[in-house]
Structures are given as C-alpha cells and as structure tokens.
Design brief:
CATH architecture of the largest domain: 3-Layer(aba) Sandwich
Number of strands: 7
Helix content: 25-40%
CATH topology of the largest domain: Rossmann fold
Strand content: 5-15%
Number of helices: 10
Shape: globular
CATH superfamily of the largest domain: HAD superfamily/HAD-like
Structural class: alpha/beta
Length: 237
C-alpha cells in the first residue's frame, strides 16, 4: 500500500475554527442596537426559545425539530444568500419579539465579527500549518462571506482560499465543494485532511479520498485544544 503525506488542510468554519456567541449575547446585542429592553425573566425565556427553534446560525442544532412548513426552506438555506436569510428569519419568527425590526437585526448581528470567537487553539494550529508550508482552505455551508470574521480576528493571513456553499450552489456533503477546495490549493484529495464538527456534512470529503479529523461543536471555552491534533497529522497518513 502506498502511503501519502498530508499536504493540505481543509477546515469547516462554524463549530470548528470559530464558535458563534451564545443566544443570550446575540439577543442582548440586538436589543441594545434597537434600544429595546425586556424584563429579565422574559429575556431569558426568549433567548432560550430562539435557541430551541434553531434561529441562531452557527449555534448547535442537534436538538432542533424544524416545522414541516419550513423544512424545504431550511434544507436550501446554504445554497444562496437569500435562502439563508429567509430560512433563519423564518425560524426566528416562531418566537414572538417585541419589535418587528428585531428579526432582521438578529440576522445581521450574527454576520458581524463581534458575534464570533475563535477556538483557543485555532491561531496556533493555523500559524503552525503556515510555518510548515501547508496550504489551508475553509470549506463551509454558509449563506454569507465569513472572511471579515477571519480578518477581524487576525486569522485571514493563514487561509489560502474560501470555498463557500452559497457561492457554489451546493452544500456539504456534496463532494464538489471538497473537490473545489483541493483544486484551489493544487493538491490531490488523497493528500488533504478535512477537519470539521459534522460527521455527515464534513465526512463527505471521504468520498473523494480526503483524510478526516472531527472535533466537538462546543462553546469555545469548553474546547481549548480540539484542533491541536491536526498538527500531528500533517506529514502522516
């Protein structure tokens, strides 16, 4: 059997390199922007309900049951920017809010760099890959461009290309996204490692021969070193 060296790394965005803020922080920021307030008990209930219906993009959704009426829209959410906004604002509208403006304000908030925090070991791992000459792609199911998030947190210099579902019109686990990333980096899929938190979506890279490494989708302060093993995998297969 021929052993190949890992020559490139593909990373998911949300839940892998970055984690979005909590539903409470998200709602508080939107209320502050619109100069609105909620009684504390109502605020707590509303933030919890927004989480329960999956209204915050990037939040963990293992617990979410999507209503039948929204299932088609949610399934298409990462195909284009319009579908992404429509899906997430529709999910949020299941929760009564004190002002109609809040649904759009909440959606806009989640795209701002302040809403995201890199996992503690992300800078170290990405910098380590760059030092070794290993090119990096971000491969994400998403409806907007996350590059400003990387720029604001100082990680954009370590990323060679961004392969985003809404720009390609397909979403992971479709192998075309992973193929596009490998092509952009100039490597064969068998020489690439896909790092992600979703075993179904990110696991699609195995179909074209990529190696896989999975991390847990946890709050950033509860996963200090989930990415660090990647450095040990580079150069081995």
């Amino acid at each position: 059997m021929t052993h190949r060296t890992i020559r490139a790394a593909l990373f998911d965005f949300s839940g892998t390199l970055f984690r979005v803020e909590s539903p409470e922080s998200w709602l508080r920021a939107a209320l502050d922007e619109t100069e609105l307030t909620l009684p504390e008990d109502e605020f707590t209930r509303t933030a919890r309900r927004l989480h329960e219906v999956g209204a915050l993009p990037g939040d963990s959704t293992d617990h979410v049951t999507v209503p039948d009426a929204l299932a088609g829209l949610v399934a298409r959410r990462d195909i284009d920017a319009e579908s992404h906004r429509a899906a997430y604002t529709a999910l949020a509208r299941q929760v009564p809010l004190p002002d109609e403006r809040l649904y759009d304000v909440l959606y806009e908030r989640h795209m701002r760099p302040a809403a995201w925090r890199p996992y503690p070991d992300a800078p170290e791992v990405l910098a380590g890959l760059r030092e070794r000459g290993v090119p990096v792609a971000v491969v994400s199911n998403i409806g907007w461009d996350p590059r400003p998030v990387f720029v604001a947190h100082g990680l954009d210099p370590y990323v060679d290309t961004y392969v985003l579902s809404y720009r390609h019109g397909v979403r992971k686990p479709d192998p075309r996204l992973f193929t596009a990333a490998c092509d952009a980096l100039g490597v064969a899929p068998a020489d690439a490692l896909m790092v992600g938190d979703d075993r179904r979506a990110d696991g699609g890279a195995a179909a074209i021969g990529c190696a896989l490494h999975f991390v847990d989708h946890l709050p950033a302060d509860r996963r200090p070193d989930g990415l660090r093993p990647v450095l040990g995998l580079v150069g081995a297969r």
